[in-house]
Amino acid sequence: MVILDNHISKPGWCCSNLDDNGFFGDKYFDPDLWITGLTRMATLFNGVTNVVGMSLRNEPRGPKQNVNDWYKYMPKAAEAVHKANPDVLVILSGLSFDRDLSFIQDQGVKLTFSGKLVYEAHWYGFSDGQTTWLDDNPNEVCGRVGDIHDEDIRYMSCFLGVAAELDLDWALWTLVGSYYTRVGVVGLNEHYGAMDYNWCGARNSSFIQRIFISPVSLPG
């Protein structure tokens, strides 16, 4: 299965709060041009059955982000994609690098279609602070955020537990072990990759085994 994901408007590595790609009205984020592009992609892949979804924009962020504009443009883009491709799932990301979808509890997204809207949220080991999972009690941290390095190990235990409890579909960032070139560096290592640097095996075989087993307790 393939999900099309609109990451940034100006080619480059994603993302930062000040990259001018983060939110509607930024230098490289024209809402009308964005919707035109989404419409063309939805049309191009209409009838391609293994393309099952379109994520409208990766990790909205930056100083211009606000709920009002999110509700102004996200539904408009969702309707455009649905019109061009009625079979594809429409995936919406929240604010603050897609870590915040809390606002939809108070105001739902009103659309002409139903049964194919998906909300996407991003949660990393560093999302709650670089040392939170390392320094604090992991059970307490998990309780707060749920209602490689040691911090990543503790974070993963919480994440797998929350995903199982809420029956969440999820994906791992990222498969790749290295890049031909990234941000001007040739052969850059991807430390978060599931594959090793040479793409010949798993970077961490015990981790690969672990993601298929739901944890029953958190490390203390």
TrEMBL record:
InterPro entries listed in its UniProt record: GH, Glyco_hydro_5
Keyword Hydrolase: yes
Keyword tags: Glycosidase, Hydrolase
UniProt domain Glycoside hydrolase family: residue ranges: 2-139
Keyword Repeat belongs to the record: no
Recorded family membership: Belongs to the glycosyl hydrolase 5 (cellulase A) family.
Record PANTHER family: CELLULASE FAMILY PROTEIN (AFU_ORTHOLOGUE AFUA_5G14560), OS04G0481200 PROTEIN
Name recorded for this polypeptide: Glycoside hydrolase family 5 domain-containing protein
Native source organism of the sequence: Hibiscus sabdariffa
